[in-house]
């Protein structure tokens, strides 16, 4: 695939390279690249115009002649949602619809303003918006899960965690900006397949990063490239921008699920020894890493309706990879075989071995705040719902084995969205 250099020498946004026999465009039903480029330019222009219109309304300046009469109701609803952006039941899917697919840009502009980052770092609003549009557009909207809406969801969760009293009283503006930027860009340009897939297909990214945190390194380097290209931080001293770039890398690399035990062991040690000193930048940074890890996998801790949507999306992405592996006669990766790996079984395993241990430690750190208790309650209820669905699937499967067919009532059970 082609590659383009962004900003200073050595930072490359490695784009869509592919295994000799596999083109990632097979994952998407896209049209000609020229047409895509044109659509992107139009989308960027429209989102830029939409932002200026929305920002004027947010400041209470009503334009003399509105060009967006059809959007007024949606903007009003989006603005109302932003007033509740710190609530855990925030519906990012609804917010994305209300912002016409610009949830990440709209959310980050708002949060940068809420946290006083624009004033503190003397950021140019137009440049900030341009950078955020670049980030949002570098996500693949064709991915069921790893797309800009996931990034916006993680960012909203990160905002909630940054407000936890145990952490909030120690955070500096730099900590907050790093946390929000890392959340927004942590999966940028994700190809919709996992690291083992890239390694076994000898993808150039796997070679570039020597099979270690391949995707996370790519997300980080792409983010640094966009920061430099946009010149968002160009007015800051060089040593400050270099430090920001390195800390962004440290945060994004922490989201590598292969490093889960490493972080859990370290967190457990800190909590058991009660030796976290949040006055120290190093300890604050570690807790920002933990917060980002929590935000990245918080879907099982959301309301059932939201959690279930995310579960279905991530499994759909797994299954697409499995279909691709089958098509090219590669070994199907774990969790990617739609015939064997059901959504309930995948989710129960994920919750049990990955999510629960991390969020129980997070609750220990925060001191069992209302948010932590709320998340753990959702997690337990959602796990019970998946167990119930798994049981019904097994019952239906056994019945189907005996009868040779699934009855109408069983089919209805399998399709049930809510469980008692």
From TrEMBL:
Region (Disordered): 391-420
Keyword Metal-binding: yes
Residue ranges of every copy of the PDEase domain listed in the record: 70-393
Any one GO molecular function term: 3',5'-cyclic-AMP phosphodiesterase activity
Record's keyword annotation contains Hydrolase: yes
GO annotation (BP), single: signal transduction
Annotated Polar residues bias: 396-413
Co-factor remark: Binds 2 divalent metal cations per subunit. Site 1 may preferentially bind zinc ions, while site 2 has a preference for magnesium and/or manganese ions.
Enzyme Commission number(s) of this protein: 3.1.4.-
Positions of Zn(2+) 1 binding: 150, 186-187, 296
Swiss-Prot/TrEMBL catalytic activity: 3',5'-cyclic AMP + H2O = AMP + H(+)
Enzyme type, top EC level: hydrolase
UniProt keyword terms in alphabetical order: cAMP, Hydrolase, Metal-binding
Active-site residues (renumbered): 146
Source species, domain of life: Eukaryota
UniProt cofactor(s): a divalent metal cation
SMART domains to which the protein is assigned, alphabetical: HDc
Pfam family, one: PDEase_I
Ligand binding (Zn(2+) 2): 187
PROSITE patterns, per database record: PDEASE_I_1, PDEASE_I_2
Family statement drawn from the similarity comment of this UniProt entry: Belongs to the cyclic nucleotide phosphodiesterase family. PDE7 subfamily.
Protein name from the UniProt record: Phosphodiesterase
Provenance organism: Scytalopus superciliaris
Source organism phylogeny: Eukaryota, Metazoa, Chordata, Craniata, Vertebrata
Gene that encodes the chain: Pde7b
């Amino acid at each position: 695939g082609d590659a383009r250099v962004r900003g200073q020498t050595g930072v490359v946004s490695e784009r869509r390279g592919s295994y000799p026999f596999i083109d990632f465009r097979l994952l998407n039903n896209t049209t000609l690249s020229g047409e895509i480029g044109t659509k992107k330019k139009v989308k960027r222009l429209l989102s830029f115009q939409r932002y200026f219109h929305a920002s004027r309304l947010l400041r209470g300046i009503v334009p003399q002649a509105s060009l967006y009469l059809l959007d007024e109701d949606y903007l009003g609803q989006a603005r109302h949602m932003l007033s509740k952006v710190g609530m855990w039941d925030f519906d990012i899917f609804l917010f994305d619809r209300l912002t016409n697919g610009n949830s990440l840009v709209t959310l980050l502009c708002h949060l940068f303003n809420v946290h006083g980052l624009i004033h503190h770092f003397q950021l140019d609003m137009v440049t900030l918006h341009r950078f955020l549009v670049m980030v949002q557009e570098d996500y693949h909207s064709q991915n069921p899960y790893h797309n800009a809406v996931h990034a916006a969801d993680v960012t909203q969760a990160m905002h909630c965690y940054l407000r936890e009293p145990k952490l909030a009283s120690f955070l500096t503006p730099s900590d907050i900006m790093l946390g929000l930027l890392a959340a927004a860009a942590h999966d940028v340009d994700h190809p919709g397949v996992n690291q083992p897939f890239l390694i076994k297909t000898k993808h150039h990214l796997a070679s570039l990063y020597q099979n270690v945190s391949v995707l996370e390194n790519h997300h980080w380097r792409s983010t640094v490239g966009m920061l430099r290209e946009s010149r968002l931080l160009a007015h800051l001293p060089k040593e400050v921008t270099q430090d920001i770039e390195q800390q962004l890398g440290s945060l994004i690399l922490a989201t590598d699920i292969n490093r889960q035990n490493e972080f859990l062991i370290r967190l457990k040690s800190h909590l058991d020894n009660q030796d976290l000193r949040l006055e120290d930048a190093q300890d604050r940074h570690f807790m920002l890493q933990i917060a980002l890890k929590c935000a990245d996998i918080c879907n099982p801790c959301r309301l059932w309706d939201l959690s279930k949507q995310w579960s279905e999306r991530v499994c759909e992405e797994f299954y697409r990879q499995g279909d691709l592996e089958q098509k090219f006669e590669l070994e199907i990766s774990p969790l990617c075989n739609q015939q064997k790996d059901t959504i309930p079984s995948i989710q129960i395993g994920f919750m049990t071995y990955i999510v629960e241990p991390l969020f129980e430690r997070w609750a220990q750190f925060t001191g069992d705040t209302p948010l932590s208790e709320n998340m753990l309650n959702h997690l337990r209820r959602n796990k019970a719902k998946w167990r119930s669905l798994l049981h019904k699937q097994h019952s239906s499967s056994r019945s189907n084995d005996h009868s040779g067919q699934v009855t109408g009532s069983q089919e209805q059970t399998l399709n049930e969205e809510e469980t008692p």
